[in-house]
Each structure stands twice: as C-alpha cells, then as structure tokens.
Amino acid sequence: MITANITTMSGFLLMGFSDIRELQILHGFLFLVMYLLSLAGNLIIIIITTLDQHLQAPMYYFLKHLSLLDLSFISVTVPQSVNNALMNDGYISRSQCTLQVFFFTSFVSAEVAILTVMSYDRYIAICFPLHYEVIMHPCKCKWAVVAVWLSGSISGILYTAITFSITFCRVKIIHQFFCDVPQLIKLSCSNDYLGVVGVNIFMAMMGLICFTSIVLSYIHIFSTVLRIPSAAGQSKAFSTCLPHLFVVSFFLSTGIFDFLKPTSDSPTVFDLMISIFYTVIPPTLNPIIYSLRNEVMKEAFKKLVLGREFTRKKIFLSFC
C-alpha cells in the first residue's frame, strides 16, 4: 500500500541517512551546525573582500565569487535535508526537486569553472608577474566571472530539462538526502534517460578540459616556484597556491569518484558520505582554508572585528 502511494504521488521520497529517529535528529543537528558555519565563514569573506581596499586584487575578487557560490551551493541541499530530518518527513515535491536539480547542477558547474579561473590567475601571477596587471585587467576579470555564472546556468538548464523529460514509473524513492540526478535516472523504466547520459558525457568533457587546465597551470606554477632562489619567496608563493590546490583536489576527486561509481539500489553509508564530501564539506572548509594561510585575509578580518568594537566603544563613551 505504501509502495503504491509512493509510486502514484507527484513528488519524491528522500530516504536520507537512517530510519532511526534519534539518528535523524543527530543528522539534522550536525547539518544545521555545518550550514551555520558555512554561512558565517562565506559571508565574512564576501564582506571583507568587498569592503577592504587591500583586497581588491583579482585573486580576492574571484575568492568572493567562490564564497558566493559555496554559500548558494550548500543552501540548495542542506536546509531541505535539515527540515526533512527534524520533521521526520522525507517528502519533496516535484517542483522543489526540479529547482534543487537546476541550482545544484548550476552551482557545481560554476564552481568547477571558478576554480579553473582561479588557477589561471595564480599561474599568471607567479609565471608572468610583470604582465599580471595587463592580462588580469579588472574588465577581463568581470567578463570571466560572467562566463562562470553563465556556464553554470546553461549546465543547470540542460540537466533539468533532460532529467525531468523522462518518465518516472518506478517507486519514487531517492536513496540520497537531496534530488540526485543519478538516483532520478534509476526511476525511469524506459530508454528516455539516454538524453541525460548524453548531457553527462558533454559535461564530463567540459570538466576534463577544466581539470586539464588546472593541472597544466600548477605544473608551470611549481616549476617556476622551485626556481625561486630564496626560501621566503618560495614560501610566499606556495602560501597562495596550496590552499587553492587543496580545495580543487578535494572537490574534484570526491565529485569525480561519486560521478563514476555505479548507482546502487541500496546505497551504503560510504556512498552517502562521499556525497557529503563534495556537497557539504567544501563550502564549510573553504573559508577556513583560505583565511588561515593568508595573512592579508587574517589582518582584514581583525580590522573588521576590531573596527566594529572601536566604533561601539566610541558611541558608548560619547553617549555617557
């Protein structure tokens, strides 16, 4: 009876991590904490890179958009998952699922693109420092960011249009905490999912181009840095590159692994953890990674906090 109701309902049922109520509450609480940490960290980066005059270089301009993407990216899946866990209701309507697929695929594609642009920025800064201001002109940086957001939107439109053109005739249960495209494809009982496979192949080729560009950029970066005679110069160069390299490696490796592994009818805890590694962990860790190894970012944050404290004290003393 339950299976029949799930089959005929218009929406989908997200299974999440467990059927045990205590574990559902724990999952909702942990996701809520991680979401609030990500929200705070990315908002701080967006604020200080916008307000601080010392953080107007292209590197920080791209970092601001990475934080904006991370903030949007995690907001697509985690709040819905927290609500489902705490309310003990995994139902998600078809319209909500459609929006989730669109924004999720859009932000994933845009994040890969912005990481590629950031690696190119570091390549120019280290390998061609004398031509940096000409090559990375503010006007060119703005067009690069426009291309990033536009490419993400096109990817989202393609995935959403193709995914929801298929006929879902199996039990509408999604073994994931969000509307995952591979899980949705498994609900089709005909060959009309082949369009999604075609889009996947096209996007995989685009992702491979981005990945190759990042690898080539860092090969040139490391070869240039290792030729720097002073240890201090090498340390400064590595301090700006290693955080970005870690973010790229972690995000792409977990995403590619989840993309390539076969979709199971009964996913294990390991399968769900892999999806967390590229949907929840990167937006939460990115602000910490970029802030802790960047002295300029730390100084800007201190100035922001101390400046507000000084302003409050000044207002209080004048009032007294």
UniProtKB/TrEMBL annotation:
Lipid bilayer topology: Multi-pass membrane protein
SUPFAM superfamilies the record matches: Family A G protein-coupled receptor-like (SSF81321)
Main localization category: membrane
Sequence intervals crossing the membrane: 25-48, 99-120, 141-162, 201-225, 237-260, 272-292
Keyword hit for Signal: no
GO molecular function: G protein-coupled receptor activity; olfactory receptor activity
Domain G-protein coupled receptors family 1 profile: 41-290
Pfam family, one: 7tm_4
Function: Odorant receptor.
Family to which this protein belongs: Belongs to the G-protein coupled receptor 1 family.
UniProt-recorded name of the protein: Olfactory receptor
Protein source organism: Orycteropus afer afer
Top-level taxonomy: Eukaryota, Metazoa, Chordata, Craniata, Vertebrata
